[in-house]
């Protein structure tokens, strides 16, 4: 499995964005290992694009990967690509990341999903709105603060904020054009309170 073999599964307009905006296969493979140390792990990719991380992870770990993406055409491309590979342990949802319940999942992947609100949309279909950058970063922080013990978070190029207290940096490694960081929730998470979501 290479970047070319995955990108060839996408429509041309999606594939041409891959080199700059989507997780490279080598990085996705390592991120998937960190996210899913067993085949029983359930991984949620927050801002999945056309699903490259999920496709690689599902194919290489045996764990279940779910991608959430706001762009409907990316979701369609992800579903078509995973279907062509006959993957049954991957699922894609067209939704805002805050409109989906995170707690059924064991691990979360964040590839700097909100940066386009500061530097411009990657494909012109979502408007760049700088106030939304802080809104989403803060919302992710609230969700993570109530994550259960053992929750794993892998970031690539960060996510725009700081990991909440209670998360331990378990690994940091050079990968692709930046670093992968693995954070693991320790101890017991506080009880959920009002305002933990959007």
Number of strands: 7
Structural class: alpha/beta
Q: Walk across the major sheet and give the strand order.
A: 3-2-1-4-5-7-6
Average of the residue pLDDT scores: 91
Biggest β-sheet description: 7 strands, mixed
CATH hierarchy, class: Alpha Beta
**What is the CATH-assigned architecture?**
3-Layer(aba) Sandwich
CATH superfamily grouping: Vaccinia Virus protein VP39
Write the layout of secondary structure elements.
Elements: H1 3-7, H2 12-15, H3 18-21, H4 25-35, E1 42-46, H5 52-61, E2 64-69, H6 72-84, E3 90-94, E4 107-110, H7 116-119, H8 130-145, E5 152-156, E6 167-175, E7 178-185
Parallel strand pairs: 1-2, 1-4, 2-3, 4-5
Antiparallel strand pairs: 5-7, 6-7
Give a description of the structure:
The protein has 198 residues and is an alpha/beta fold. The chain has one domain (3-185): Rossmann fold (3-Layer(aba) Sandwich). Helix content is 34%, strand content 21%. The chain contains eight helices and seven strands, in the order ααααβαβαββααβββ. It has helices at 3-7, 12-15, 18-21, 25-35, 52-61, 72-84, 116-119, 130-145; strands spanning 42-46, 64-69, 90-94, 107-110, 152-156, 167-175, 178-185. Strands 3-2-1-4-5-7-6 form a seven-stranded mixed beta sheet, with helices on one face.
Structural descriptors:
21% strand, seven-stranded mixed sheet, alpha/beta, 198 residues, Rossmann fold, 8 helices, 34% helix, disordered C terminus, single chain
């Amino acid at each position: 499995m290479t970047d070319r073999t995955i990108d060839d599964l996408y429509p041309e307009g999606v594939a041409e964005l891959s080199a700059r905006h989507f997780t490279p296969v080598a990085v996705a493979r390592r991120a998937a290992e960190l996210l899913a140390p067993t085949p029983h792990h359930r991984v949620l990719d927050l801002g999945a694009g056309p699903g490259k991380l999920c496709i690689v992870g599902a194919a290489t770990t045996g764990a279940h990967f779910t991608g959430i993406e706001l762009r409907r055409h990316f979701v369609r491309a992800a579903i078509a690509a995973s279907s062509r590979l006959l993957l049954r342990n991957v699922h894609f949802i067209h939704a805002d990341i805050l409109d989906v319940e995170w707690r059924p999942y064991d691990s979360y992947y964040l590839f700097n999903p909100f940066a386009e609100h500061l530097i411009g949309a990657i494909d012109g279909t979502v408007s760049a709105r700088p106030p939304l950058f802080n809104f989403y970063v803060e919302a992710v922080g609230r969700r993570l603060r109530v994550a259960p013990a053992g929750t794993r978070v892998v970031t690539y190029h960060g996510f725009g904020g700081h990991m909440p207290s209670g998360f331990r940096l378990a690994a940091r490694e050079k990968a692709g054009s930046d670093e992968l960081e693995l954070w693991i929730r320790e101890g017991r998470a506080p009880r959920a309170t009002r305002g933990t979501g959007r």
